[in-house]
Write a structure and sequence with these properties.
- With 57 residues, this protein is an all-alpha fold.
- The radius of gyration is 17 Å and the shape is elongated.
- The longest helix is centred in the middle third of the chain and has 18 residues.
- It comes from Bradyrhizobium ivorense.
């Protein structure tokens, strides 16, 4: 039995997609200067994103 990914050469598997997203995120963090202070809303969103990433892994 073949999967949909095997039938469509334009599709990436989840592991490859995650690896690329992580690499792009790391590169952005290295190249972007952090804001001196974040708005409270943006800080809340970042905290929530970090919490979800920790919970997911």
């Amino acid at each position: 039995m073949t999967t949909q990914i095997e039938n469509d050469p334009d599709q990436m598997d989840h592991k490859t997609c995650r690896y690329i997203c992580d690499a792009v995120g790391e590169r952005l963090q290295q190249n972007m200067r952090p804001e001196p202070t974040l708005s409270s809303r943006l800080q809340q969103l970042l905290d929530e994103m970090r919490r979800r990433e920790t919970d997911h892994h």
